[in-house]
Design a protein that fits this description.
With about 190 residues, the protein is mainly beta. The chain folds into two domains: about 100 residues, Immunoglobulin-like; about 80 residues, Sandwich (Immunoglobulin-like), CATH 2.60.40. Helix content is about 10%, strand content about 50%. It has one helix and 14 strands, in the order αββββββββββββββ. The longest helix has 15 residues. The N terminus is likely disordered.
């Protein structure tokens, strides 16, 4: 009986424990993308140089201040949604997106990969999806401030679909794709 109780407690703790995700923060941190669960923490560790880490929009706000090599900044995400972030001195090479889901994804499960072409694009983006053949997906487009600019259901045929972005202003956007309970994000540039 004691062993059954101990196993139940350990299993419950494993299911409901928060995860601390580790990311590097340096000049190679271009287009970082991570999908986490509510109440998970992301810890960024500074590489060489002086940097800051500041949210630029979305559902969470944070600002690390400026620090040098070895500094660590952590933020616990409590609200489902998308948050974008940058390093102010290096916005073209140090930026990323955190997508927070209401359900946990264990060991990277619950994610799928996709590619966008062409980048930059002016009218249409073509989306190629891994592991999704013929299905419907929700496509949401957010600007760099985290404001939703588009939301549409798209039919996927042989792992491919497209999206008309001609009405968007020039700039950097985040495409968030959701298929069932899986979500993934990627940046693209509208010219």
């Amino acid at each position: 009986m004691k062993y059954k109780l101990l196993i139940t407690l350990l299993f419950t703790n494993l299911i409901y424990s928060q995860i601390n995700h580790q990311l590097n923060w340096n000049m190679s941190s271009t287009n970082q993308q991570i999908t986490i669960a509510v109440d998970d923490t992301v810890t960024w560790t500074w590489g060489s140089g002086t940097h800051n880490l500041r949210s630029t929009g979305g559902v969470e706000m944070f600002d690390s201040g400026y620090y040098g090599p070895g500094y660590q900044f952590s933020h616990t995400f409590s609200t489902p949604g998308v948050t974008t972030y940058i390093c102010d001195p290096h916005p073209n090479s140090m930026y990323g997106t955190v997508t927070v889901t209401a359900t946990a994804s264990v060991g990277g499960q619950g994610l799928f990969k996709f590619n966008i072409s062409p980048v930059p694009a002016s009218d249409i983006i073509n989306i190629s999806l891994d592991n999704i053949g013929n299905d419907q997906i929700l496509i949401e487009v957010y600007d760099i401030l985290g404001r939703q600019n588009m939301s549409t259901i798209s039919n996927v045929t042989n792992g491919k679909t497209s999206l008309n972005i001609s009405q968007l202003s020039k700039g950097i956007y985040v495409a968030k794709l959701t298929s069932g309970i899986t979500t993934s994000v990627k940046r693209f540039i509208k010219e």
